[in-house]
Write a structure and sequence with these properties.
Radius of gyration: 21 Å
Order of helices and strands: EEEH
Shape: rod-shaped
Helix content: 40-55%
Number of helices: 1
Strand order of the largest sheet: 1-2-3
Strand content: 15-25%
Distance between the termini: 45 Å
Oligomer: single chain
Number of strands: 3
């Protein structure tokens, strides 16, 4: 994401993100670009954490599937 992707209305930055509208104010950051950068960094960290958790879930499901000693359609694995 980049600051140019945001709609600026007065002292607010607006953008649709994951199907919802994100609204950022400059607040304590001193400038709107700085506030947007902080918001984007926080969202990136959240997304990375969610992807790590999803990876753990997929790994767990794959390990359980391997432990069953049969494939998803009842065939023995090779």
């Amino acid at each position: 994401m980049a600051f140019r992707d945001w709609d600026i209305v007065g002292d607010l930055a607006l953008r649709e993100f994951n199907g919802q509208e994100a609204i950022v104010r400059k607040g304590v950051h001193g400038s709107l670009p700085a506030a947007v950068a902080v918001w984007e960094a926080r969202e990136q960290q959240l997304m990375q954490a969610q992807l790590i958790e999803l990876g753990r879930l997929v790994d767990g499901a794959m390990n359980r599937l391997r432990a069953r000693k049969t494939g998803p359609v009842g065939e023995k694995p090779t």
